[in-house]
Amino acid sequence: MHGTILNYRRFPRGFSESTPQPENYLRSTTTLHYHNNHWRLALQRQMTLKAKTQGQKATGMEKPKIPDDKLAKHVHELYPKRAFVGSKFVGWTAFADILIGMEVNPNENRQRKIRCKVEQLRKPGHKFSLREPADVEKTMTAELNRTKETICRNQKAAVQAKEGPKKTNDAGQSISSILLGHRLSEMKKQAAQGGNWRSNKSAVSPTMPQSGSANSQGASNTDVESRTSSALQDYVTSGSDSESDSDDESGTVSIQESDDEEPDFSLMDELMPSSNQTSDSDSKLQGPRRDIGHGPLLSQSIVVEHARDLIPQYAFLGCLQDETFAESAAVKVFHNTNVPFSTFVCGVQGSGKSHTTAALLENALIPSKHLGRLRAPASALVFSYSDWADGGVGFEISEATYLAEALPAYPGAHVKRVTVLVSPSNPGIKNCYMGANIRVIPFKLDAKALNISTLLTLMAVNETSNTPLYMARVEAILRSIATNSQDGSMDYKLFKTLLAREKFDPTQRTMLDMRLNLLESFLDLTGQVPDLEYLPGEMTIMDFSDPFVTPNTACILFKLGLDRFVNSSQSTAKVVVLDEAHKYMLDSPGAELLSNRLKTAIRLQRHWGGRVIISTQEPTISTDLIALCSLTVIHRFTSPTWYAALRQHISAMGGDDRAIMRRIEELETGGALVFSPSAVLGKDDEGAPVKATGRLMGLRIRKRITKDGGESIMAV
């Protein structure tokens, strides 16, 4: 073999500044041994790693102490340790400040990320979601009480050990005392040997700890003697009948420690139900106070009496028009905007349903002394869809848009900003929404934040009961991507690459391209669309009026918008409005998908601070939603079919059908029959709340403080 042969065993383990560089070794070598290849690759990897490390230090790139993927777990672990002082919660803002203070020179991006993560984990549904502070405080308080109880029990046992076993003078128990004394001596012998005494019937088995010290051994013997003597004494005082019952076939005796059987009734006081009891830790109301604090509608007398304790915010809605109340026209009815609610508004065109919807939105979004008190304005999301034909001739924008403009008599009484999300394929609709305080942007979904569920919904995979064969193959690709995904997100480019490898026939490829074109029309592949913000006092309108968007597709997009709105954290109170729902809630798979999502949202509205308003001309659409609503507002209509649909879900309409139908037909514009069983209209002589259970209240809706865009156009 020609040339120099290098033996890898002659190479040093490490390299210093005096060590020749690898290229010098290779330059002086013409032939390498087979094993030297391994050593050369190791040197190259070491040099590459060293250069990479030096480059990171030069550019100031340092690995954070807490990786982003472990931040949620880190917050979850420190929550019970740092967020509570004793058993009191320090507050979410203070907890976030504590986490930031534990970091080493965190930048603004890191601080913002920690605060956002705390806000995210406050809500349920996350793997590392944080428990409610009130629940943690209760757990800590109960643990503290149990610790105090254990200390008292140990002190009591120590006193009994010093005093020795109690003596009895009852002559009738002498025989039992002798027998049990013999058993006690045997137990003490076994305990002295470090053994355990067990009973066949008792689950208690006193165990003696072994120790080399005479003092500890004596203390252990004294402790066992004290506990067993006390138990035997209780057995003796129970009489001969209990003695015979306690002996089994082997003659052993069942002994239980008396301290474990004594309940501490003082620990149960905090669980006692009371009609007037309130919890300071979680501010949950009980009994009549809870009925008042959680009532969706309240009379003026109730608001005046409890505005400082139970009703922190409220808004004027209308006046009573009910023959059961004397001087009902003077009784103002207020809307409790502090609690989650769901409202169903129906009636023919021109009966006042859009006016009522706007009044409810004003109450929740606009602070005004003319309405009442609103400390925490909500954020709103409005769904709207109409026919778009001949370039928008005759098109009417959503009437909720006019909340951006105040009437001259109420300057400044309007929502802060209205954001209109429109279909990207209909840019002409932007001119219809031009106005002050209004911005129009195309509705786009971030492709990087796209998840499997959103993609399946957009591609309408569940649109038909029988999934086509090519869609089954698409689902298989998505399933494989989801299996390898760490956080449920997906790479859309990878999805397109895997689809291109599939061999579809021309018909299947055409149908698949149609679905992909629909999907990509609502995807932001460039990253230029700004992120949406649902801030308090602002309203977002999703208007997908477009000749290329069917009502079925609009419902699918509404469902995606609802998911994103519910999961947002910018506002604690959120209002979802289905404006003119009869235009898109048709008999279609998309409408069924949206209806099912709304049912879930209403059932869980207490957990995400939801308020849902459904406004429609036809109550026959998705009648299941009526039964879930806490407030039903019925404006004028004449259809027996509509009446039958309402009668199935409203118990107050079970009486004289003709009389009730006559009341509905005679309603004036702006008048309504309201069904709200939880509404509180006053108090009786004993101070108990008087509810509107089992009745239809006549209500005259108040005037608006914003511009009314739905006024009828008269000829003269």
Question: How would you describe what is shown here?
Answer:
This protein has 716 residues and is α/β, with parallel strands linked by helices. The protein has five domains: 8-58, no CATH class; 68-131; 138-261, no CATH class; 297-444 and 529-701, Rossmann fold (3-Layer(aba) Sandwich), CATH 3.40.50; 445-528. Helix content is 39%, strand content 12%. The chain contains 23 helices and 20 strands. The strands form four sheets. Strands 3, 4, 5, 6, 7, 8, 9, 10, 13, 14, 15, 16, 17 and 20 form a 14-stranded mixed beta sheet that branches. Strands 1-2 form a two-stranded antiparallel ribbon. A hairpin with a 5-residue loop joins strand 18 and strand 19 (689-691). Helix 3 crosses helix 5, helix 4 (92-101) packs across helix 5 (108-121) and helix 7 (174-192) packs antiparallel against helix 8. The radius of gyration is 37 Å and the shape is globular. InterPro entries: P-loop_NTPase (IPR027417). Residues 154-173, 187-292 are annotated as: Disordered. Residues 196-232 have a biased composition (Polar residues).
What would the principal axes of the Cα set say about the shape?
A: globular
Sheet of most strands: 14 strands, mixed
Cα radius of gyration in angstroms: 37 Å
**Helical content class:** 25-40%
Cα(first) to Cα(last) distance is 113 Å
The first-level CATH class of the largest domain is given as: Alpha Beta
Average residue-wise pLDDT = 77
Class by SSE composition: alpha/beta
What is the strand tally?
20
What fold name stands as the CATH topology of the largest domain? Rossmann fold
Q: Give the CATH architecture of the largest domain.
A: 3-Layer(aba) Sandwich
CATH evolutionary superfamily of the largest domain: P-loop containing nucleotide triphosphate hydrolases
